[in-house]
Amino acid sequence: MGSFLIYFLIITIIPIWASLRVNGAYKKYSNVPNSTGTTGYEVARRILDSNGLYDVQIEETRGFLSDHYDPRAKVVRLSSANYHGHSIAALAVAAHECGHAIQDQEDYAFLRLRSSLVPVASFGSNTSWILIIIGFMFQMANLALLGIIFMAVAVLFQVVTLPVEFNASSRALNQVVSLGIIRNDEERGARSVLNAAALTYVAAAAVALLELLRFVLMFVGMNNDD
User: Which Pfam families match (predicted)?
Assistant: First the structure.
C-alpha cells in the first residue's frame, strides 16, 4: 500500500510541478516587453517569410497557451495573448510554433513519425485502459496484453514528441537571434519560457512510461501466478 501511495504521489506531482514551472515562466516574461515592440503575430510572420513560408497563415485562437501549428491546414495558430502581445513570452511562443512550420517544410523525420502515429496513438490512449482493466479483472491475459500494446503506441507518441518540441524551440531561438528580433539580454528570458514549456512534454512522457511499466509488471505477475 505504501509503495503504491508513493507511486501515485510521483505521477501526480510530476505534471503539477511541470505545469507550475511553465505557468510561472510564462507569467513572468509575459510582463516583460520585447525591445523591438513587435507582436507575436509580427514575429511569426517575419520568421515564416524569411524561410519562404509565405503560404503559411497565422490565425488567432482562443484559450490560454492554446498555440499550435496545424500541418494539414498550414496554419500557425496563436492564442490571443500571444497574437497581440509584445512580451518576451509572446515572442518565444510564436517563434516556437514557427519552428514547427519550418520542420514541416524541411520534412523533419520526427515530425513525420509523430504525425503518422497520431491516429493509432489516439485510438490506443482511448482504448488501452478499457482493455487493460477488463483483462486484469477477468484474468484475460490476451486482452490485457492487447491493451498494453495499444498503450505502448500512445507512449511512443509521447516520446517521439520530445525531439520534435526541443528541435522546434532550438529553431525558434536561432530564428529570433539571427533575424535580430531580440537582443542578447532577452535571449535568456525566451529560453526560460521555451525550456519550461518543454518540461510539460517531458513530464507527460515520464508519467506515461511509468504507467506503461506498471502495467507490464502487473501483466508479468499475472502470468507468473498462472
Answer: Zn_peptidase_2 (PF04298)
Task: Give residue 134's domain range.
Answer: 2-225
Strands 75-79, 68-70: pairing kind = antiparallel
Alpha helices by DSSP H, listed for 35-182, are 40-50, 80-84, 88-105, 109-137, 141-178
90-148 pLDDT, tens per residue? 999 999 999 999 999 999 999 999 999 999 999 988 899 999 999 999 999 999 999 99
Catalytic residues: 97
135: exposed, middle or buried (Cβ count in 10 Å: 0-12, 13-18, 19+): buried
CA atoms within 13 A on the CB side of 23: 7
pTM of this structure: 0.92
CA 18, chain centre distance (Å): 12
